[in-house]
Amino acid sequence: MSKEYEPQTVKEITDMVNSSLKLWGMSDEAYAKLINLSENATFCATDPKEGPNKGHSLILRVQRNDYSTKDAIRSELAWVKALADDNVISTARPIPLVTGEYVAMTTTASGDHRMIVAFEKLNGSEPTLELAGLDHWFEVVGEISAKMHNHARQWKRPEWFTRRIWDFDGIIGEHAYWGNWKNSNGLDDFGKLTVGKTVDVVKTLMDDYGENNYNFGVIHSDCRATNLLVDGSDLHVIDFDDMGFGWYLFDFAAALSFMEQSDDAVKLANAWIKGYEKVTKLSDYEKDLLPTLSIMRRIELMSWCTSHSEVPFAAKEGLQVTKDTVRLCESYLAGSYLR
User: Where does residue 321 rank: exposed (0-12), middle (13-18), buried (19+ CB within 10 A)?
Assistant: First the structure.
């Protein structure tokens, strides 16, 4: 298991964040509380002191070690700001330090170097399977995704722009960012055989689909329920930390993350497609490819649960994710997945 979020590490990160709040102009009375541990550690900081920042809150994201470079983070923030400035989506704007920079370079008491970025705090709550009308929000996500993709196709990226590439190799291939799927916790011989056959089929189909300026570009790549906020009639898209270059329709697969085994999966998938086609029509070929993109993402998530086994969700649900992934691969090979 990684030591990324051992109790002592979390304590040191928390202390570091609280001692760094002045970098954003917050007072010595400001404090930060941990609100989430996943790919990164996320905090909410509030300033109670009388003055221009009284009651002001920020969301602070402490970067996981060795995941993104400073230029990669700057690139992420550049697209987020462009999407907000161009009124493409509702999202949390990055908040600069008092110096005007956007990435803080900090160090814990034990000498662990970390980067922190800040965002405005938005209202809202995560849509869940239990939330009435979840298919409505998936339709909205589909529509928003199409708008982001159209923006990405015409956006002039900064010369220094750099992000990881979410192609087959980076998702479930030999150089997968989240680890080799064969090492997934609880994956037995039957599971390796079943997933292996699925991976072979996926590679053939994605090789046929190829990569071009129309189907491959800058994507959110993690536009799932935990990165959405329902705020009345509005939907905010947050957390672009995994954004990169990938197939645009991979955002469909990301939207279904960890919901693929749900009885509602087909309904949610159809809602996403309906929303997407309000902006951009999909060919029959593209629609037929969506289950392939989704099962590729699901295998990637199985790997994520192993490489991020210290994350509370992965520690609790990892073995079940593996079990369900094998079953979903069987369904995919039988031609019934998301059908």
Answer: buried
Q: Which residues of 180-215 are buried (b: 16+ CB within 10 A; e: fewer)?
A: ebeebbbbeeebeebbeebbebbbebbeebebeeeb
Q: What is the pLDDT of residues 133-178, one digit of tens each?
A: 788 999 999 999 999 999 999 999 999 999 999 999 999 999 999 9
What gap in Å lies between CA 30 and CA 332, rounded to an integer? 51
Count of beta carbons in the 10 Å neighbourhood of residue 169: 13
Dist. CA 96–CA 26, nearest whole Å: 12
The helix/strand/coil state of 184 is coil
* CATH for 7-120, options being 3.40.50.150, 3.40.50.300, 3.40.50.1240, 3.30.200.20: 3.30.200.20
Q: What gap in Å lies between CA 9 and CA 212, rounded to an integer?
A: 43
In the three-class reduction of DSSP (H, G, I as helix; E, B as strand; rest coil), residue 293 is classed as helix
Domain boundaries, the chain: 7-120, 134-333
What distance in Å separates the CA atoms of residue 161 and residue 70, rounded to the nearest whole number? 11
Q: Is the pLDDT of residue 120 over 50?
A: yes
The CA-based dihedral angle spanning residues 66, 69, 74, 76, taken in that order and rounded to the nearest 10 degrees: -60
* CA-wise closest residue to 280 among 128, 134, 184, 153: 153
What mean pLDDT is predicted for residues 297-305? 98
